[in-house]
Structure formats: structure tokens, C-alpha cells
Design brief:
about 80% helix
Amino acid sequence: MFSILVGSAVISIFHALIPSHWLPILAISRKESWPPKQVLWVTFVAGLAHVLSTVLVGVALAAFGLVLADRMAFFTTWISPALLIALGAFYIYQHYFHHHFHLHNQASRFGIVASLAIAMFLSPCFEIEGYFLAAGPHGWHFVALLTLLYATLTISGMLIWMRLALHGLEKLDWHALEHHAGLIAGVTLIVSGLLINL
């Protein structure tokens, strides 16, 4: 049981560093001029959505076996990347046709955050699912402990990494890149969508 917890902890820590988990949020935050507090909040929401889907699949695996992972493959392979690519295409379109338009109204912000959260929800971390499968025979209390460990380390890791990225960005002069922020955000989202399954 100890090796299951240690292995899942290592996966969770490194999992939080995957660029597709924070880079799209960072790119959008630069384009939309979000304050650091909002960026961290959006990171938390996206991380929570990602953890929720992973745990749902993990609990199902602990109870029913590996068959469910094959059924989830369609969503992970197609829907989640498609959402990121579509959001990226929107930002590229906005860059070329609505140069100075910013999504400052509440409904548009909600749409962006919802798209990011849905994309993260539809791409659960399959690397950790083997640990949920292994935890099943040890009972639901152990599965709950594994869930708490994974959720805490993944979301905390994403928030810490984002905070470090934001702190590093504060030292940079973004004035030269501000004109192309929409294009950068769009390309970043599309690349993240294309690489999500590699």
C-alpha cells in the first residue's frame, strides 16, 4: 500500500508541471490582462475539473476495472483537444479581425473559464489510473486516501507552478509582445490541443 501512495504522489507532483495544464491559462491571462489573483482562481477551477474527472474514472476503475478507460479514450483523444484548438482559433481570428477587442464582460469570461474547465475535465490523467486500479482491493478508505493525495498534490502543484510563472513574467517587459498577445494565446492553445495526446 505504501508503494501505491508513493508512486501516485510522484505522478501527481510531476503531472502538475505538464505545460498543457497551465500554459493555455497563462497565455489567455496575458491576452485578457487578468490580474494574478484571477489567473490563480482560473487555474484552481481548471485543476479541480481535471482532478474531478480523473477521480471519477479512478473510482470507476477501482470498482469495475480497466474497461472504462477504453470508453473514455474518445473524449480524451478528440473532444478535449478540439475544445483547446477551437478556443485557440477564436483568439487567432480575434487577433486578425478584432485587434483591440477584449473579453471584459462577465459572460465572455465565464465562457473562457468554462471552456478551459471542460477541456481539462475531458482529459483525465490516465497515468494515475493504474494506482486507483491497484488501490481497489484495499477498500474504499484507501481509495479515498489516494484521491485526497492526488487532488491535493495536483492542484497545489498547478497553483505553485502558475504563481512561479506569473512571478517570472512580472520581471519581463511584455510591451513588445502585447500587440501579438491574441496570436500567441491562439497558437499556444492550438499546439496544446494538438500535443495533448502525445
